[in-house]
Amino acid sequence: MATHPLAAELAAIREMASQITRDGHTEAECVADLGHTCTGHDAERLADVAEVALTLADEWHLKAMGIGEQMDISDAVGAKAGFMMCTAQAYENCSKALTSAITTALLGEVPDGDGS
Question: Residue ranges of the domains in the chain?
């Protein structure tokens, strides 16, 4: 995840959250004291979710690239080649859409280009 363009933003969110949770209190203590988790714990969990989703988007992108590299249209049956192309494109589209949604949510802007 360290090389992802949003890694710095997620690190900054975690740093801000740690300012709230630096006293070492647990989520259970928040619930006992406040009736819900504090903003710091919420931000940490949301950053974790964003990181997992970005990792998934990266995996989909790699699958799309792998499928594309495996294709040899001259050797493939037309239907199989078509299926592989559609599958690769679906993975790539999902990857771009997921990355774009997370980028927009974190930064408040729609990413330029390919969304990664």
Answer: 7-107
